Every structure is written in structure tokens, then in C-alpha cells.
């Protein structure tokens, strides 16, 4: 009897195991046999794509190879990086200046590559700062942050840095509406409805990439979440998802989740340009920083600007339209043809797909159901192409493969769902580990996707990697999407928390005129030392400027005396090398900032304030040659008021002979 | 284990197998990453000409007398790119001193070596012997043809050409 009972229990247990066994429990179930072959890039071989991944709360941008998942570089953008001297060298400090002063950290959520005719062109990648609202432009010839512009009237720059199809504009929308900087911000928080405003920013991008805040559009206070530009037929329009159309100012989790539908806001930016030409914008007094890097002086400058042109969405008709979208939409993605706009309502049980053509005829025939703060609201059905039914739980973001399919991440049900854009039928679904946020197909938000790989950027990894204490690895997963079924081929850990990403064919970047070194002849740094003969130490009051050179494997000068307590010493180190892959480092004992990492032909400055009398070794930190360990020197620090004169030398300061 | 549980186990195996069906399809896939060679492999060292060196210069015409202006230009370029490591006497600093170099080497060898050092360090027996002494590979300093030629003229001046 007992035996029979046990058998029954055993059978039931097996049965229930069977029922759940199709939900993969381990990588073994989800990975196909040839996965390793597909993700393997042999030593010395190159990857097929560069993958530019947002570093989330690290504030940086990371560069991986696809399909190998190998990390090539972390580009410092919004956060200081002592390893590269970013934010620590005198030259880079202005890059992190804002209207609030020097800000050493931010939260980079989204990357967007520049485009020409709607196709990725390999010139720049943009990144957004989500905390202190800014947009950065990273130059893909140098893999260096070349420019950062701050956005006034904004709080939480989340729906950014998306671009138009010829990189005419890069946009930003405030996630947290706030009273504009040109109005009084000292108001009770619960006056959100009357005093808080949304501002979306259009930043013009010039031929050389230079950014200029062209105009802002003021809207009722809501939370702008994500955006994408129209393309092809919808070029000239921009689409922003917004939530909290309830205008809650507390416990948004509940209070901003009341309405069944929020909005996708469609912005006719060409119309906005017409209004500006007609002089309809209002100049408002604000303060924001615009920081630029100069490749000739190897130095950043920060300029505070004081004016912005603002267009009123309620007053100036035909710029903005609201399209109702269920429910608290997050992702706002436009298919390669520019006809379909996918809104991903994170609390919705379906995915609405809007039609640009239908939206246009709805506007022409005034099929409105009212207005929202003076902005016409188009009837939902009038703009709707259709709905993807039962896609999964918690739709967030959609990318496209250029072959008629869309891929949407499902945060709550932890999966990516592939569906047909025209018929809206679900074609395939694949689990992710776990809780996927963004996803990326190379070129997947452009007119020309490269639909071979899809990468899921996950929020949770739980048991996927060896445990590392309370904080676990961040992770991405690569899927082969060249066939009908999505196939997981690789997990790889990432820095920070990965949000959105972009990718480009490797040749597009590596053949774009990659800079290998800075020509010493073109070095216009005011403290450049072009040759050892020019190296010197100059005292100006309590400031001491060291004009120093580095070459394999010594500094000149490498013996410095006459520094006194109370001095501020500036080491301006010029790397005289003129070859690829030969940076030199510079570090000195007690420096309370970072090291310098000086590229060939570059001049970089470390400020050093010695705090004690004594002997201070300095050395090269980047292994440069067989005699790297010899690449070092000494600085003698004497008491304040000492009469040791400034002296400096290399190779000649020898012991006195009797 | 009785029959019942054996069936149950078999059934569950079958189920697992059907869920992991992808494993059986392990054929070649065309979507293998496109990869490329990083650098062309070094050419056959036996073809190396130790008198000419390796590089773009086959023969370099020298004037009967020194071109003073060119030599001055060369001195200037050398000050930025060379003299951190080379003295103009015969004394070794990081690399060997320059005194007498234009007598030891053909002009095309010098021009090739200073514009294209890496392959020559790998192949030239005398440079390899020098590397054992200096232990620092001479860096490629990105000299233009004109700069290289002017440095050669400066070396000639240093060796007493008037």
C-alpha cells in the first residue's frame, strides 16, 4: 500500500515535471548544438559587428564585438574615469561641467548612431545623461567623447538621444516634468498640474557633428519616456511615448497607472521649423553648458549658454498630436518603412501598431476625440493599424529585422516575441535570462537593419553566472535570427546596467579613417613640449609648470628639484611617440586625482599638490617597452620658504665626484 | 521500479528530447561570422636585402655637397622625434649614437629603416644584434618622406659632409 502510494507520488511528480519542462530551466534546454560555432570568433580574427552598449548607471559607453561578446573598450562619457584621466586631467575637466558645476557621474541609458538617408553611417554615436539632462556625442574615429550639451527645462533626459534620418536633429524629452528654468521653480510639489511642464528638445547636428540646441517645445506636464524619428514617408515627424498623463506627483506606481490609455505624441518638426522661420518661438532665459573637445589642443572648453527658443504646443497648431496608446507606453519604435509606429504599453496585454498613413488622414479629416492641454487627441481606431494580441506580459521595446518581422521584449514574462508587422501574428517566442529590457538588432531602428543577430539586454541574471556577492553580473544574450526561429547562441556579461544599444558592421567603423595617433606637428596644446630640448620647469608664483616629454622609455625631465610645500605643480606630459598603440601613463605618489594616459602625440596635464616634504617617485603606468620598469623619475619637495632652486634634468644629474 | 514508473521515465525522456530538438540539427550553418586576417603574414625573410633594407626606397640620390637648408630642417625634426633616444656622438643612449651612421649604412637602408622600422627589426641580422644590446625596439615615429630625407641630410652633416 505504502509502496503504491509512493509510486503514485513519483508518477505525479514526473507528470508535473513534464508539464513544465517546455519552459526552459537551464541553458541546456535553450541552446542549440551549434551555438558555440556561431558565436566563436577565433583568436586573431575580427568580429562581424561593433556593438555600442549603454553603460547605464556607470555613465559610460562600452564597445563589444558581435557575435563573440568580447569587450573592446569602455569609453568614458558622463562619469569620471581615473584610469583614463577622464574628469581628472585638467584638459578633460570642462567636459563634465554643467549649469550646476562639475558633475562627476551620470546614468547613460540609450545610444544612437548617426545616420545618412536612414542608414547607419559610422561617424558618431550619441548617448543620453538621464540624471543631469545632457546629450553626448562620441567620435567613432577616436572612440572619444567629443561633445556634451546640457538641456535646460528638463528633469531626467530619458527619451533621448534619438535622431532623424540624416542626423538633422538629436532629440531629448524630459522624463520628469518640472517648472521651466525660466519660471519660478519654488512652488508646492502638489501644484504639478498648473506649474509643471514638459519640454522636448531638438538639438541640431552640424556637418562636423557640432550640436546646437535649436528649439524646445513646451507641452503639458507628463513623463516622456522614449522616442524615435519617422523615416522615409514619415521623415519630418518624431514620436514620443508618454506616461503619467494623469499628472501625478506622488506614488506614480499607482497614481500614474490609472488611465487605460496614455499617449504617443507625434511631433511635426518640419512644421515647428516653419513657425520658427515665421518668428513664432519665444526666447527664454535659461542656463546650460555646452562642452566641446578640441582635437588640436587636446583640451575641452565649456561654455555656458543663456537662451533657448521655446515653441508652445497648445498655441501653435499642427506641431503636436496625441495618439492614445494603452497603457503607460514605454518603447516607441518605427519600422524600417516609416509606416508603422509600435507603442509598447508596459502594463498592456497587447501591442498597438499605428499607421502613419492612417494618422495623416485622421488629422486631415479631424478625427479627434478631444484635446489634451490644447493638443488634439486623434481617435485611437483612426490611427491604428492593428494590435498584436497576447504577445506576452510587459512589452517594452521593439526592433526590426528588415525582413518584415518585429521583435518585442517582454519584461514580465522574460521573453522576446517575434511577430509579423503586417499581419500582427506572433511567429516565435524565446525565453531570456531574465527580465529583458532593451533589445538590439544591428541597424534595427534604421531603414536598413542587418537582421542576423539580436541581442537582449537583461535586467536580472540571478543564477546565470557564478555568484559574486549581493550584486550579480549584468548580462546580454545573443540570438541568431537568420532563420525562422530565434536561437540563443551566447550569454556575455556587461558593465554597468545595459539599456539600449546600437551596432554597426565592423568594416563601416574600422574603415572610417580611424585615428592611430596624433601628429606631433599638429599638436597646438599651449603646454606642448615638442622634443626633449624644449622640456623645462617654469615657476610662476606658487604654480610650477613642468613641460615634460615621454618616449620609450624615459621622461624628460626625470629629476626635478625646487618644488616647495604650497606649490601647485602641473605636469604637462607630451607623448613624443608617433606610432599606433603606444600610450604612456604618468603617475606620481600622493596625487589625489588620477593618472594620465597620454596617447601618442598628445599633451595631457595632471595637477599635483604635494602635502608633505620628501621624495616623490613618478613612473609610467602603461607598459611600454622592455625598459618600462626603468621609465620613472623623482621630484624633490622642500619646505615652504626653502631656498632650493628649481632645477631639472634627464641623464645629467650624476653623483658628485671627488 | 515497476513498469508504470519505467514508462513514466521513458515518456519524460522522450519529452525532453522533443523539446531539445534543435540539438539533432548540427549541420554547417552559413551564418558563421565573417572574419578577416588581421595582418598579412611576414614575407619570406630569405628575400630580405640587408644592404637596401625593406621599405619604399630603392635608391636615394645624394648631392655631392651638403644641402644646408635640408640639414637644418632635419635637425629640427630630429629634435622632436629622434634625439630623445639618439645622441649625435657615438655614445649609446636608448639607441645607438648617430656618429658615422652614413658611412656604415647605405642611404636607402637608413631611409627605409627610419620610415619602416618594424619589419626590418624582425629581419635584419644587424638590427637584431643591436636589439639585443638596446632592448627597445625603435618606434615608428611617423616620418614623412621629406622628413626622413632631411634627417638623412642632417646625419650626413653630422658625419662631416660639407
From TrEMBL, chain A:
Q: Which UniProt keywords apply?
A: Copper, Metal-binding
A Pfam family cross-referenced in the UniProt record is: nos_propeller
GO MF terms here are: copper ion binding
Subcellular location, in the record's words? Cell envelope
The UniProt entry, under SUPFAM superfamilies, shows: Cupredoxins, Nitrous oxide reductase, N-terminal domain
User: GO CC annotation: what is one?
Assistant: cell envelope
Q: Which PROSITE patterns match?
A: COX2, PROKAR_LIPOPROTEIN
Principal subcellular localization:
other
Stored InterPro entries? Copper_CuA (IPR001505), Cupredoxin (IPR008972), N2O_reductase_N (IPR011045), N2OR_C (IPR034205), Nitrous_oxide_Rdtase_Sec-dep (IPR026468), Nos_propeller (IPR041114), NosZ/Cyto_c_oxidase_sub2 (IPR051403), WD40/YVTN_repeat-like_dom_sf (IPR015943)
Identify the PANTHER family for this entry. CYTOCHROME C OXIDASE SUBUNIT II (PTHR42838), NITROUS-OXIDE REDUCTASE (PTHR42838:SF2)
Name of the protein in its database record: Nitrous oxide reductase
Instruction: Please name the source species.
Output: Flavobacterium suncheonense GH29-5 = DSM 17707
UniProtKB/TrEMBL annotation, chain B:
Claim: Disulfide bond is one of the keywords in the record: no
List, as start-end ranges, the regions of compositional bias called Basic and acidic residues: 22-35
- Specify whether Metal-binding is a keyword of the entry: yes
Q: Its Gene Ontology molecular function terms?
A: electron transfer activity; heme binding; metal ion binding
Quote the Pfam families the UniProt record gives.
Cytochrom_C (PF00034)
Q: Enumerate the spans annotated as Cytochrome c domain.
A: 69-159
**Origin: domain of life:** Bacteria
State the name under which the record lists this protein.
Cytochrome C
Q: Where is this region: Disordered?
A: 21-57
Quote the SUPFAM superfamilies the UniProt record gives: Cytochrome c
Tell me the keywords, alphabetical order: Heme, Iron, Metal-binding
Amino acid at each position: 500500500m505504502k509502496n503504491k502510494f509512493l509510486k503514485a507520488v513519483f508518477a505525479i511528480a514526473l507528470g508535473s515535471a513534464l508539464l513544465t519542462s517546455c519552459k526552459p530551466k537551464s541553458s541546456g534546454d535553450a541552446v542549440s548544438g551549434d551555438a558555440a560555432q556561431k558565436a566563436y570568433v577565433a583568436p586573431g580574427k575580427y568580429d562581424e559587428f561593433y556593438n555600442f552598449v549603454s553603460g547605464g548607471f556607470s555613465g559610460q559607453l562600452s564597445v563589444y564585438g558581435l557575435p563573440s561578446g568580447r569587450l573592446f573598450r569602455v569609453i568614458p562619457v558622463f562619469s569620471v574615469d581615473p584610469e583614463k584621466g577622464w574628469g581628472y586631467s585638467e584638459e578633460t575637466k570642462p567636459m563634465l561641467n554643467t549649469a550646476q558645476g562639475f558633475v562627476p557621474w551620470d546614468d547613460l541609458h540609450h545610444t544612437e548612431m548617426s545616420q545618412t538617408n536612414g542608414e547607419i553611417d559610422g561617424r558618431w554615436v550619441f548617448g543620453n545623461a538621464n540624471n543631469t539632462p545632457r546629450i553626448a556625442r562620441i567620435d567613432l574615429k577616436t572612440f572619444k567623447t567629443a561633445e556634451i550639451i546640457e538641456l535646460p527645462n528638463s528633469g531626467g533626459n530619458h527619451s533621448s538621444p534619438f535622431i532623424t534620418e540624416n542626423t538633422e536633429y538629436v532629440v531629448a524629452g524630459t522624463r520628469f516634468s518640472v517648472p521651466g528654468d525660466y519660471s519660478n521653480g519654488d512652488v508646492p510639489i502638489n501644484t504639478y498640474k498648473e506649474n509643471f511642464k514638459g519640454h522636448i528638445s531638438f538639438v541640431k547636428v552640424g556637418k562636423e557633428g557640432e550640436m546646437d540646441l535649436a528649439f524646445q517645445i513646451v507641452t503639458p506636464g507628463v513623463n516622456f519616456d522614449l522616442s524615435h524619428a519617422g523615416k522615409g514617408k514619415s521623415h519630418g515627424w518624431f514620436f514620443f511615448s508618454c506616461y503619467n498623463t494623469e499628472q501625478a506627483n506622488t506614488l506614480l506606481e499607482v497614481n500614474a497607472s490609472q488611465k487605460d490609455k496614455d499617449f504617443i505624441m507625434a511631433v511635426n518638426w518640419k512644421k515647428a521649423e516653419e513657425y520658427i522661420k515665421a518668428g513664432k518661438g519665444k526666447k527664454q532665459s535659461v542656463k546650460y553648458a555646452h562642452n566641446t573637445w578640441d582635437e588640436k589642443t587636446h583640451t575641452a572648453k565649456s561654455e555656458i549658454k543663456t537662451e533657448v527658443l521655446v515653441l508652445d504646443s497648445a498655441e501653435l497648431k499642427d506641431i503636436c498630436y496625441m495618439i492614445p496608446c494603452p497603457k503607460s507606453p514605454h518603447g516607441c519604435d518605427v519600422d524600417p518603412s516609416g509606416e508603422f509606429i509600435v507603442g509598447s504599453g508596459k502594463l498592456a496585454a497587447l501591442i498597438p501598431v499605428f499607421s502613419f498613413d492612417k494618422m495623416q488622414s485622421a488629422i486631415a479629416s479631424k478625427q479627434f476625440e478631444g484635446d489634451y492641454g490644447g493638443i488634439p487627441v486623434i481617435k485611437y481606431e483612426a490611427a491604428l493599424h492593428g494590435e498584436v494580441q497576447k504577445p506576452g506580459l510587459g512589452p517594452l521595446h521593439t526592433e526590426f529585422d528588415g525582413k518584415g518581422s518585429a521583435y518585442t521584449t517582454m519584461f514580465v514574462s522574460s521573453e522576446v516575441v517575434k511577430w509579423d508587422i503586417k499581419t500582427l501574428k506572433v511567429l516565435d517566442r524565446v525565453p531570456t535570462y531574465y527580465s529583458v529590457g532593451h533589445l538590439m538588432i544591428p541597424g534595427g531602428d534604421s531603414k536598413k537593419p542587418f537582421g542576423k543577430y539580436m541581442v537582449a539586454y537583461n535586467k536580472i541574471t540571478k543564477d546565470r553566472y557564478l555568484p559574486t556577492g549581493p550584486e550579480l553580473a549584468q548580462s546580454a544574450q545573443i540570438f541568431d535570427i537568420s532563420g525562422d526561429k530565434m536561437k540563443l547562441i551566447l550569454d556575455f556579461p556587461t558593465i554597468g546596467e545595459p539599456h539600449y544599444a546600437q551596432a554597426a558592421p565592423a568594416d563601416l567603423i574600422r574603415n572610417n579613417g580611424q585615428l592611430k595617433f596624433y601628429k606631433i606637428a599638429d599638436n597646438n596644446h599651449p603646454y606642448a613640449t615638442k622634443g626633449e630640448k624644449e622640456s623645462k620647469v617654469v615657476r610662476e608664483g606658487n604654480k610650477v609648470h613642468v613641460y615634460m616629454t615621454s618616449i620609450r622609455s624615459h621622461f624628460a625631465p626625470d629629476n626635478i628639484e625646487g618644488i616647495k610645500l604650497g606649490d601647485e605643480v602641473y605636469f604637462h606630459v607630451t607623448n613624443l611617440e608617433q606610432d599606433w598603440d603606444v600610450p604612456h601613463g604618468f603617475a606620481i605618489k600622493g596625487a589625489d586625482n588620477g593618472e594620465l594616459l597620454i596617447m601618442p602625440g598628445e599633451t595631457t596635464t595632471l595637477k599635483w599638490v604635494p602635502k608633505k616634504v620628501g621624495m616623490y617617485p613618478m613612473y609610467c603606468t602603461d607598459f611600454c617597452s622592455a625598459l618600462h620598469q626603468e621609465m620613472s623619475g623623482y621630484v624633490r619637495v622642500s619646505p615652504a620658504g626653502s631656498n632650493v632652486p628649481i632645477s631639472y634634468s634627464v641623464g645629467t644629474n650624476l653623483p658628485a665626484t671627488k | 521500479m515497476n513498469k508504470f514508473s519505467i514508462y513514466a521515465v521513458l515518456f519524460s525522456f522522450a519529452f525532453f528530447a522533443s523539446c531539445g530538438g534543435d540539438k539533432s540539427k548540427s549541420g554547417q550553418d552559413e551564418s558563421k561570422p565573417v572574419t578577416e586576417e588581421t595582418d598579412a603574414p611576414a614575407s619570406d625573410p630569405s628575400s630580405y636585402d640587408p644592404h637596401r633594407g625593406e621599405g619604399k626606397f630603392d635608391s636615394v640620390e645624394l648631392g655631392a655637397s651638403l644641402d644646408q637648408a635640408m640639414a637644418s630642417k632635419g635637425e629640427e625634426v630630429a629634435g622632436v622625434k629622434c634625439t630623445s633616444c639618439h645622441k649625435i656622438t657615438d655614445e649609446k643612449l636608448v639607441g645607438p649614437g648617430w656618429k658615422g651612421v652614413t658611412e656604415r649604412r647605405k642611404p636607402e637602408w637608413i631611409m627605409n629603416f627610419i620610415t619602416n622600422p618594424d619589419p626590418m627589426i624582425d629581419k635584419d641580422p644587424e638590427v637584431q644584434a643591436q636589439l639585443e644590446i638596446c632592448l627597445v625596439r625603435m618606434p615608428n615615429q611617423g616620418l614623412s618622406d621629406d622628413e626622413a630625407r632631411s634627417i638623412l641630410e642632417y646625419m650626413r652633416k653630422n658625419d662631416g659632409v660639407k
